[in-house]
Structures are given as structure tokens and as C-alpha cells.
Specification:
single chain; mainly alpha; about 0% strand; globular; Lipoprotein
């Protein structure tokens, strides 16, 4: 499983391939769900909505064939986590429909993503220090805990959770911007740059805000150019 999937708490979705050819074959649904989930995340973070929706539907269909709520819950949490990474602070209806069957760790993660206080002890390890800092209302500690997360997507998810909880700092915004930029993730990069520009404007630093907005324009223009090129224009 790639590092892209681990931070979204779906490690139970796909088991490792058999070590040798004599082992039992991996069911098709596991392979298909794994591939669809990876493609969904890649497309969503790149801003390719149509592809993302198609792959999300495919992942839901594959895990739905098992009738296991635990797997469906992880698909929904993965979707909501990706949205939080891109500062899309919406409800998570897919999870809420399944909450009654959710494990304590899933409920805690959903609460964490929504900016609420969560039981850090049952969260994924990389998010525990962040959740603890949020519980203590320590903005600096929360930002530092986010910056210490090694996986880029986990870092962005944590940054989004911190900002949603109302504890963002300039350092947090800078870390999130550079994380998204380093990975070439257009959707979260634009969202975090927008947050950075608004903070600069609120602080009266119009020069810094203008610089950030020029960077946003560059990202937007590159997306338009890429789309035109793919159509042969």
C-alpha cells in the first residue's frame, strides 16, 4: 500500500499480495478498490473532478460488494480527509449514515476532521500529537505537530483539521502551502494560498497578499494550459 493511503485510515481495505504464487489469490474487489481509491485521491488533489467522482463511485461499489460497514466507513473517511486537506469544510454525510456501525477510532477520526475535540489515543498515530495540542488550545504546538508529520497528505489533512478548529497560524499556512506545492497538488495548493492571501490582507500586508495572488494566478493558468493541451488546442 502506498503512503498516500495510510494517512486516511484505510489500511484494512487492501491486504498485501501473497508472498508466493502458491498462496491464496487476492479477491478482485480488494485490488479494484485499492486502485480506485488511489485514482480518486490523485484526481481529487489534482482538481480533476469528473475522474475523482468516477473513481470514488467505483471504490464504493467494490467495498459495497462485501457488505462490510467498516470498509465503507473508511472509504467515506478517506473522501472527507481529502476534502479537509483542500480546505473544503463540508459535512461528511457518507460517514454519518454509517456512524452507528463505526468503531471508536473511526468516530474519533471523523470528529478530528470536523474540527471537534477527539480522543487522541485512538487516532492514527501521526495525528495524535496534533489532536492533543488542539485539546490544549495550543496553536503553536498544533502547528509544530503538523510540521513534524512525515507523510505529505497526512500533514495537509492535519493542517486542515487545525485550521477548521480555529487554531491556524502563519507557520501552519506556510507549511501547508509548501507541502501542496511540493507534491504538485493543485486543488489544496490554491485553497491554502487563498487562506494565506486573506490572512495577509487582514493583517494589512497588501504587498504580501498581492505576491500570493500572483502565485495563485500561475497555478490557475497552468491548469488551464494543461486542459487546453489535452484537447489539442
Amino acid at each position: 500500500m502506498t503512503t498516500l493511503l495510510r494517512p486516511l485510515v484505510i489500511s484494512t481495505l487492501v491486504m498485501a499480495l501473497p508472498a508466493c504464487s502458491s498462496g491464496p489469490p487476492v479477491p478482485d474487489w480488494k485490488l479494484n478498490a485499492h486502485s480506485a481509491q488511489e485514482r480518486f485521491l490523485s484526481a481529487y488533489l489534482s482538481g480533476k473532478d469528473n475522474v475523482a467522482q468516477t473513481e470514488l463511485a467505483r471504490a464504493r461499489q467494490e467495498v459495497g460488494s462485501t457488505g462490510k460497514a467498516s470498509l465503507a466507513i473508511r472509504i467515506e473517511l478517506a473522501r472527507c480527509a481529502a476534502q479537509v486537506a483542500a480546505l473544503v469544510f463540508e459535512a461528511c454525510p457518507g460517514f454519518e449514515r454509517l456512524r452507528v456501525d463505526a468503531a471508536a477510532s473511526d468516530v474519533a477520526y471523523a470528529d478530528y476532521l470536523s474540527g471537534q475535540r477527539a480522543d487522541s489515543a485512538v487516532l492514527p498515530e501521526q495525528h495524535r500529537a496534533v489532536a492533543s495540542a488542539l485539546a490544549a488550545a495550543n496553536d503553536v504546538a498544533a502547528s509544530s505537530a503538523v510540521a513534524a508529520i512525515a507523510d505529505p497528505l497526512s500533514r495537509l489533512v492535519a493542517a486542515g483539521a487545525v485550521l477548521r478548529a480555529g487554531h491556524g497560524t502563519p507557520a501552519l499556512l506556510t507549511s501547508a502551502v509548501e507541502t501542496a506545492s511540493g507534491q504538485g497538488w493543485r486543488r489544496p495548493l490554491l485553497a491554502w494560498l487563498q487562506a494565506q492571501a486573506l490572512r495577509a490582507e487582514k493583517a494589512g500586508d497588501m504587498q504580501a497578499a498581492a505576491q500570493v495572488r500572483r502565485r495563485m494566478a500561475l497555478v490557475t493558468e497552468s491548469g488551464t494550459t494543461s486542459g487546453a493541451a489535452s484537447k489539442g488546442l
